[in-house]
Write a structure and sequence with these properties.
Layout lengths: L16 H18 L4 E5 L4 H14 L4 E5 L7 H14 L3 E3 L3 H11 L3 H24 L1 E3 L5 H6 L20 H11 L3 H4 L13 H5 L3 H13 L4 H6 L4 H13 L30
Parallel strand pairs: 1-2, 1-4, 2-3
Helix pairs in contact: 1-2, 1-7, 2-3, 2-7, 4-5, 10-12
Amino acid sequence: MSAVSRSSSRIDLRIDAACTAEILARFVRTEVLRAGRARAVVGLSGGIDSAVAATLAARALGPDQVVCLRLPHRTSAAAALTDAADVARLLGTPLETVDITPIVDGFVQVSGEVGRVRLGNAMARARMLCLFDRSAALDALVLGTSNKSELLLGYGTLHGDLASAINPLGDLYKTQVRQLAEHLGVPEAIRHKAPSADLWPGQTDEEDLGVRYDEVDRLLWLLVDARASRDAALAAGFAPDLVDGVRQRVASMQFKRVPPIVAKVSSRTLGRDFRYPRDGAP
């Protein structure tokens, strides 16, 4: 039976966690050194994705070369701060804490009432402002923590949590990040908590998305990795509303996954005709 004709419950997203960890740690080391740096900066949210990214970086570069930042807002859950501290302590990495509340309050003061979504975007961008500023001070690279599920669904803030210099997790679905986290020894409390960007009290990713990761990951694999058609996804047992909604969302969020499109007016346009090779000359 071909992959695209399997029922949704039989789609297998298991990974070889040990091999994947080795590949990703090597990726982090190679890309940091290729950029002429030796250090990385990671924002620790208390969640599973940032914990895995920090663990991979510590393995790749050594714990003393990875600076972890906790970036709380006054509405942040106390447990998130504790969990982030536990990860840094377990890894032996330096841990800094920067309160983003004054930054966000300044934004609200000049913008007026912004609502929960815009406030969440401001918080995400304030955190990335601090991470990139710290990376400049340390001559380090910011590691991304967005997984493949989030990138495909556009579940993240442009120039906020979606920003990074390199991203070791972007080709792993959320359910696969969980497998990797177990292999890497990420604390159980973090592995089993409900995924949340901690943008407001009680907020969870799956409630925002309207679907569980274990279901949407299988559908995304079918549509993206197996290149299945809509009809094949329906035949696999996925509900029509879910299939159509995910297909539409993946397409509409493409702008978050690519650099800004440059209008072509010359003979050699950046991103179209001129693609600078990392290891060569122009």
